[in-house]
Amino acid sequence: DLTDLPQVECIYEDMIDFELELAVIVARNASGDMKTYPVVEMEFHPEANQVEYVICPARIDDAVSEKARAIALEVSAAYDHVGLLAVEMFLTKNGDILVNEVAPRPHNSGHYSIEGSVTDQFEQHVRCVLDLPLGNTDSTVAAVMVNLVGEEGHTGNVIYDGIEDILAMPGVTPHIYGKKQTRPFRKMGHVTVVDKDVAVAREIAAQVKDRIKVVANS
Asked: 183-193 burial by CB neighbour count: b if 16+ within 10 A, else e?
């Protein structure tokens, strides 16, 4: 593994034997008031290494959820930020929670909140930066977000093949980002699936993934 490394300073890290990837969004206004959104679970595409599904609530024990939200608040306080902070974490197979990365902005892991939360992440971000009281972060329903990315082998003017099919499905809402050109694995939009049962929402999300394809107009 060392043979082809460039001759510059490098960081060596051990591989983490993790069970799940989790994320918590923290909202913090200029007065220092903080709230966390529920813990979400992220499933990644095995080749593109980008989020494929975001599941809320995460399918974890309450104790793990409370621990993850507490860690996210500690990270937020350390940065002393204003706005939203997405804190991504590894849940290891022995039950430890390790912070993987942070993103100081509205984030993929919070897109579900448009349909699934009392206060969506975009409104909450505005409340934060204007130093207004923070909105309720509770979920109103279970939600799963499906990332829409360009299909492999397709570059050019975009077509959302199958969007009519998913619009006919109950609890399904597509969000198209308005990008005119697609390319393999480019983020082009997302779809939110809501249901009272998170397992049902996850099943429908898989159907959505199968039915809609982001392709180029050949």
From this structure: bebbebbbbbb
How far is CA 130 from each of CA 28, 82, 83, 110, rounded to the nearest angstrom? 11, 10, 9, 20
The end-to-end CA distance of the chain, in Å, is 41
> What CA dihedral angle connects 102, 108, 110 and 111, to 10 degrees?
160
Q: What's the rounded mean pLDDT across residues 167-191?
A: 96
pLDDT digits (tens, 9 = 90+) for 96-141: 999 999 999 999 999 999 999 999 999 999 999 999 999 999 999 9
184: preceding bond cis by omega (within 30 degrees): no
Domain ranges of the chain: 15-140, 148-218
Strand 40-44, strand 172-176: pairing: unpaired
Handedness of CA 62, 104, 93, 201 (dihedral sign): positive
Both structure tokens of 96? 């430890």
Element (H, E) at 20: strand 18-28
The percent of residues above 90 in pLDDT, for the chain, comes to: 88
**Residue range 15-140, CATH number:** 3.30.470.20
pTM of the model: 0.91
